[in-house]
Amino acid sequence: MSIAEMLNKAAPIVPVVVIENVEHALPLAEALLQGGVHSIEITLRTDAALDAIRALAKADTGIIIGAGTVLNATQWQQAADAGAHFAVSPGLCASLEKQNINAPIPLLPGAVTASEIQRALEAGFEFLKFFPAASSGGADAVKSFASPFKQVKFCPTGGISVETATAYLNLPNVVCVGGSWLTPASLLREQRWSAISDLAKQASSLDKKA
Ligand SMILES: O=C[C@H](O)COP(=O)(O)O
Ligand SMILES: CC(=O)C(=O)O
């Protein structure tokens, strides 16, 4: 599946997850799917992350698996080897640019300025994360990039809530938004899967108008 197809299937929301316990991966994915959410971004911020990606890939639930917080080419390859379908980085750096010549799986690098977007385009990336979205000008800033960068599509993430997501989703250059509000640490710790399904239902019913 191309990155365009993956993100269209993921829309309107990519839940950004910090997973501490590999045993949580499968029930979490099932709770999200039950709530109509078709993707999950497991951030490589914990020791359990790569094993969680492996467990999900093996379970073959149909959920699109992203690996987040990929900071260099080694982590990009590790995410691919674990079975992630796509990778996400908060920004962009030389090792990721170089690896994109032979990308093991598609990667969304982060960019929030015109120069960062141009640099990402030069390295061959057209699907970008706009991170941190809320503190970098929000939907107004993303909208400003639609005209000069017609080929670029964004997944804004960072400081977005169920209340503010629609302003981003209404933009033609936004494919989906990312956010951690569906999977708060307390619900994961307490394994409150039906509460996560409820948050997923609410988020998956957000409209992507444009
Ligand atoms: O750490 C940032 C993630 O991309 C999600 O951001 P958030 O927690 O503001 O939704
Ligand atoms: C913040 C972000 O972009 C990430 O963790 O992937």
From TrEMBL:
One of its GO terms (molecular function) is 2-dehydro-3-deoxy-phosphogluconate aldolase activity. Pathway: Carbohydrate acid metabolism; 2-dehydro-3-deoxy-D-gluconate degradation; D-glyceraldehyde 3-phosphate and pyruvate from 2-dehydro-3-deoxy-D-gluconate: step 2/2. Belongs to the KHG/KDPG aldolase family. The keyword Lyase applies. It is an enzyme of class 4 (lyase). It catalyses: 2-dehydro-3-deoxy-6-phospho-D-gluconate = D-glyceraldehyde 3-phosphate + pyruvate. It comes from Permianibacter aggregans. This is 2-dehydro-3-deoxy-phosphogluconate aldolase. Keywords: Carbohydrate metabolism, Lyase, Schiff base. InterPro entries: Aldlse_KDPG_KHG, Aldolase_TIM, KDPG/KHG_AS_1, KDPG/KHG_AS_2. It comes from the Bacteria. Homotrimer. Its EC number is 4.1.2.14.
